[in-house]
Backbone:
């Protein structure tokens, strides 16, 4: 049976993808193994389960595209002192994370436009949309 992932699990998996080593090939199998080892999700989610979550799929696709280019750049500049290499690696990770977050933000904005249109189309007022969430009964 397919494993259901919590929002925190998804966030942690995307974080694993953000910090994927530049010199290690990214595959679904390796990602599943890393999730099992690093996040201690046992049994590890399958490739099919991971692909169902848009955030994970987008982060994976972005990770597949960019590491070869980043690895070539970092190999050219191997004459840097150790402290600069560490800083460069951190910058590369953060740039990847920024690119992923910008893509996620763009997808959320697209979703908002669809919701906005549908609210207008079906006559949902701004007052209805801005109603507070119901309070939980403890």
Residues:
């Amino acid at each position: 049976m397919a494993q259901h992932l919590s929002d925190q699990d998804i966030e942690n998996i995307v974080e694993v993808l953000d910090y994927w080593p530049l010199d290690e090939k990214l595959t679904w199998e390796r990602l599943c193994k890393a999730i099992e080892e690093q996040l201690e999700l046992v049994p590890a989610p399958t490739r099919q389960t991971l692909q169902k979550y848009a955030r994970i799929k987008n982060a994976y696709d972005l990770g597949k595209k960019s590491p070869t280019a980043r690895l070539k750049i970092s190999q050219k500049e191997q004459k840097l002192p150790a402290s600069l290499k560490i800083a460069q690696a951190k910058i590369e990770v953060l740039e990847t994370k920024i690119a992923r977050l910008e893509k996620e933000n763009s997808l959320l904005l697209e979703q908002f436009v669809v919701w906005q249109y549908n609210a207008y189309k079906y006559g949902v007022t701004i007052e209805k949309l801005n109603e507070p969430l119901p309070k939980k009964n403890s």
Residues 7-129 form one domain. The chain has one domain: 7-129. The chain has a mean pLDDT of 86.
